[in-house]
Amino acid sequence: MEVNNVAAIVTGGASGLGGATAAMLAKRGAKVTIFDVNEELGNSHAKAIGASFQKVDVTDEASVVAGLEAAEKANGPARILVNCAGIVHGGRVISKGAAHPIAAYRRTIEINLIGTFQVLSQFAARLVAANVEPLGEERGVIISTASVAAYEGQIGQAAYSSSKGGIVGMTVPVARDLAQYAIRVMTIAPGLFITPMMASLPEDVQKSLAAGTPFPSRLGTAEEYAQLVESIIANPMLNGETIRLDGAVRLAPR
After folding, report:
1. Are 59 and 110 a contacting pair, CB within 8 Å?
2. Rounded to whole angstroms, how far apart are CA atoms 211 and 163?
3. How far is CA 240 from CA 112, 134, 137, 152, in A?
4. Which helix (DSSP H) or strand (DSSP E) does residue 243 occupy?
5. Predicted confidence (pLDDT) per residue in 25-51, tens digit
6. What is the C-alpha to C-alpha distance for residues 254 and 252, in angstroms, rounded to an integer?
7. Per-domain boundaries in the chain
8. Which residues are identified as catalytic?
9. Is 138 helix (H, G, I), strand (E, B) or coil?
10. Partner of 42 at 20 to 30 A CA spacing, among 20, 55, 74, 168?
């Protein structure tokens, strides 16, 4: 699919992987709307890249619907959706004799997994209802963000791995559901990337994590994630698959 002059939505687009993706799409000529809960950062990044911003909580159906309506009113029916909104949670199943707080587990699933599904399903429904003609072979593209932790989560990642594993698991069935509407569905599973959370860790910790990646032995950049998004959008045969973007890293237990 061509990106120029196409309406696109990026959740979690105020910073990190989503921020770089929103910037890439805007640079390629897309009419980008950023969805994020961080209003200050979202407005600032949108202004910097020539995009628009909507404060959207992906766990709230009314918020998602309102954001999609506002984006469509501004830019027309969106054909590209990139789901980057998410949180990282760490906690062992048993810690100091106590069970993992179920509220923390539920919140991780609610934001990362249910939030992703809620946005993509509402997005797809609006795109189909708009009855726009396909651009070439396809009507739209949806890309979601999982993690290599979906496959080999570390100690303390039960909640996070569950949420990201769910995204991987739904990729094929969602692609099959939406195939009749000419909407492709893909997932990216990043390895160890420089994100706001990663950047907050001590430098020696970052170096230690980077050394565990076979090649290139460094942390990935948000721009490299955005580069893969661009490639997925451009290639119509990429559908129903999760691509690991990880430098061949396989996470050790701890």
Report:
1. yes
2. 26
3. 19, 19, 16, 21
4. strand 241-245
5. 999 999 999 999 999 999 999 999 999
6. 5
7. 7-243
8. 160
9. strand
10. 168
Count of H-run helices and E-run strands, the chain: 10, 9
CB neighbour class for 236 (10 Å; exposed up to 12, middle 13-18, buried from 19): middle
Which amino acid, one-letter code, is at 173? P
pLDDT at 27: 98
Stated pTM of the model = 0.95
Asked if residue 188 lies in contact with residue 145, where contact means CB atoms within 8 angstroms, the answer is yes
Q: How do beta strands 94-95 and 98-99 pair?
A: antiparallel
User: Is 53 exposed, middle or buried (CB count within 10 Å of its CB: 0-12, 13-18, 19+)?
Assistant: buried
Pick the CATH number of 7-243 from 3.30.830.10, 3.40.50.720, 3.30.530.20, 3.30.43.10: 3.40.50.720
Which tokens sit at 252?
């050790």
Per the CB < 8 A criterion, the answer to whether 169 and 151 are in contact is no
The angle subtended at Cα 129 by Cα 128 and Cα 130, nearest 5°, is 90
For the cut 80, the answer to whether the pLDDT of residue 121 exceeds it is: yes
What distance in Å separates the CA atoms of residue 28 and residue 227, rounded to the nearest whole number? 12
Residue 80 bridge partners (DSSP): 8, 141
